[in-house]
Amino acid sequence: MGEWYRKAAGFLLNSEEWDLFMFKWHGPDWTNHLTMYMIDEEHAMYDPARAAEGWAYWDRLMGLGDRIVQTVIDAAGPEAAIALVSDHGGATSYNGKSPKGAQTILREMGLAGGDGKPMLAHAFKHYVHINVKGRRPGGVVEPDSAEYHALRERIIDALLDAKDENGRHAFRAVLPIEDAARLGVAGDFAGDIFTIPAEAQKPTREEWLELHPDPAKRGTWDWPRMNSGAHCDDSYFVIHGPGLKRGYRRQRPALITS
């Protein structure tokens, strides 16, 4: 840890103008995406010869994390409350065949526009946006109308019913946006429907190569261009400081929201 960081942390944490200081460290996220194919035996790219290398990356990274935490503790002093929190958990991305996406389903339902039909809804990432009047130019659905609510329920039912050729549901959860608020999902960029897609199937090595035939897009074993780490819903929250119960563990998960 460089001396410049110690001075910066000490200045910020001990300044009278600061009673809250947050340090974001992206190292674990990046390392998860890079190394999961090295350490997960079920990944199609797994090579036993590289397992020690993958774990060595994590050992070095966690050592850096320990030094960061110790630096903050030293700078903050004994009266500070210090929390470690992750914005999401980490898992393996198997890069298999993904279930049918929401935009494909909307297109099949005739709601995505084209062929002279108006666009009634479109999907982007975890959201389905209904094309509401006043929200954007070309809106066609009256906001908070019977038409709006009927259309939204129709889309939710279709997404929940969607399955792949093996009978697996395409989505783990599909919620009206107001029901997703308890998950911390809200704001100006949120859509009318919040979705959590099902995970891609774990392919065999032969299936994986068939799904990703272009070597230029796969990258190399030494530096894969495809992420092998994925985000998941699990996370952690650890806090230490004056007045906090030592060794306490919640029996139920807590939502991490701002």
Task: Provide structural commentary.
With 258 residues, this protein is α+β, with helices and mostly antiparallel strands. Helices cover 33% and strands 16% of the residues. It has seven helices and ten strands. The protein has helices at residues 3-14, 27-39, 51-76, 102-108, 146-161, 205-211, 215-218; strands spanning 82-85, 89-92, 112-114, 117-119, 121-124, 127-130, 171-176, 193-197, 229-232, 237-240. The strands form four sheets. The chain has a four-stranded antiparallel sheet with strand order 5-6-8-7. Strands 1-10 form a two-stranded antiparallel sheet. A hairpin with a 2-residue loop joins strand 3 (112-114) and strand 4. The longest helix has 26 residues, at 51-76. The protein is flat and about 65 Å long.
Quick summary of this structure?
The protein has helices at residues 3-14, 27-39, 51-76, 102-108, 146-161, 205-211, 215-218, and strands at 82-85, 89-92, 112-114, 117-119, 121-124, 127-130, 171-176, 193-197, 229-232, 237-240. With 258 residues, it is an alpha+beta fold. The strands form four sheets. A four-stranded antiparallel β-sheet has the order 5-6-8-7. The chain has a two-stranded antiparallel ribbon with strand order 1-10. A two-stranded antiparallel ribbon has the order 2-9.
